[in-house]
């Protein structure tokens, strides 16, 4: 059966039948006509076309989620929160991954715009790269101009509603907690040089230690990719550079797990030979030996919060939802 058959059965025009079943962004149908069309559709067992409904309404029932790497437990936990909130709103999630290439984000936003996604959530750190940031900001502005809405998890630099994690506070609290446990010689696996979240965490950690009279030497700060492999590479470089510090802090947990693997490869035992800490409290830490000290971010909750922001009524100014962090001390950093 086609929509024309339904219109004929109901005694209305094809346009009226389409508006009654698929909805319309601009025009409504009288209640009595809509009831006739729906009754005819039920009698003929007509199933509406989802694409036709999207064209009529100006949007689909999909919500776009853009992440850097779905295999990373950080992003998969956020995705769990996004899908939970989207399901409550009657939406399905369309997932897109940049494969750690931020220059792809603007193109993915444009693709979701052309697919008429109702809203977009973007999760991932920003780089100190004005050209990439400006391109993504423009893509989001174009998407909002045609009725879309968006929310960001991360640094609030894109002119959209954002969920902002207390990275600096968490890093400073961790530095103080490790100092209180007796650690004085620190090394940092600092992530990429231009990564804003990594920089914010590193600077806050170093500043908190400086307030306590402990300096982190420049040669004890090792930059690398914000990934498991990056953590391995940075830890190997640190192990080759000279005597071990008291504790190594990686600016995210995935890097910390890479550092743990690199240490084990050369017979360095955590925490007997060197203590180790991370940041994020990703779900896979429950399987790590020794249990890893970290800073907990409620990752599922921030996915939910970002989705709710993206689906909220539009606001004249970008809204910010601030999320606190919590230091979690575990066996990888015992009292000295």
Which helices and strands, and how do they pair?
Blueprint: H1 3-10, H2 14-22, H3 31-44, H4 50-57, E1 62-67, H5 73-88, E2 92-97, H6 105-114, E3 119-123, H7 130-145, E4 149-153, E5 161-165, H8 167-180, E6 186-191, H9 196-211, E7 221-223, H10 228-240, E8 247-250, H11 253-265, E9 275-277, E10 294-296, H12 299-311, E11 320-323, E12 326-328
Parallel strand pairs: 1-2, 1-3, 3-4, 4-5, 5-11, 6-7, 6-8, 8-9
Antiparallel strand pairs: 10-12
Helix pairs in contact: 1-2, 1-3, 2-3, 2-4, 5-12, 6-7, 8-9, 10-11
Organism: Cellulomonas biazotea
GO molecular function, one term: transcription cis-regulatory region binding
InterPro entries: HTH_LacI, Lambda_DNA-bd_dom_sf, Peripla_BP/Lac1_sug-bd_dom, Peripla_BP_I
């Amino acid at each position: 059966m086609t929509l024309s058959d339904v219109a004929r059965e109901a005694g209305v025009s094809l346009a009226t039948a389409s508006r009654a079943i698929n909805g319309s962004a601009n025009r409504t149908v009288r209640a009595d006509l809509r009831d006739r069309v729906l009754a005819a559709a039920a009698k003929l067992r007509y199933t509406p076309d989802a694409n036709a409904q999207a064209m009529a309404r100006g949007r689909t029932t999909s919500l776009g989620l853009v992440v850097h790497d779905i295999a990373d437990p950080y992003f998969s936990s956020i995705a769990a929160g996004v899908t939970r909130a989207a399901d409550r709103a009657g939406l399905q999630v369309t997932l897109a991954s940049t494969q750690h290439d931020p220059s792809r984000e603007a193109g993915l936003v444009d693709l979701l715009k052309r697919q008429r996604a109702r809203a977009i959530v973007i999760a991932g750190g920003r780089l100190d790269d004005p050209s990439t940031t400006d391109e993504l900001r423009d893509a989001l502005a174009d998407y909002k101009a045609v009725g879309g809405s968006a929310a960001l998890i991360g640094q609030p630099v894109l002119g959209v509603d954002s969920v902002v994690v207390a990275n600096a506070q968490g890093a400073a609290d961790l530095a103080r907690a490790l100092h209180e446990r007796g650690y004085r010689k620190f090394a940092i696996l600092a992530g990429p040089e231009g990564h804003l979240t990594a920089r914010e965490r590193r600077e806050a950690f170093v500043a908190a230690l400086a307030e306590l009279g402990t300096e982190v030497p420049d040669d004890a700060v090792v930059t690398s990719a914000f990934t498991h492999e990056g953590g391995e590479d940075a830890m190997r470089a640190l192990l080759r550079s000279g005597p071990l510090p008291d504790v190594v802090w990686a600016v995210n947990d995935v890097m910390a797990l890479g550092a743990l693997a690199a240490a084990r490869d050369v017979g360095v035992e955590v925490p007997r030979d060197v203590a180790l800490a991370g940041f994020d409290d990703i779900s896979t830490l429950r399987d790590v030996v020794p249990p890893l000290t970290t800073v907990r971010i409620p990752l599922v909750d921030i996915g939910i919060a970002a989705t709710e922001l993206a689906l909220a009524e539009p606001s004249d100014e970008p809204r910010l939802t601030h999320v606190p962090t919590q230091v979690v001390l575990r066996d990888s950093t015992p009292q000295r």
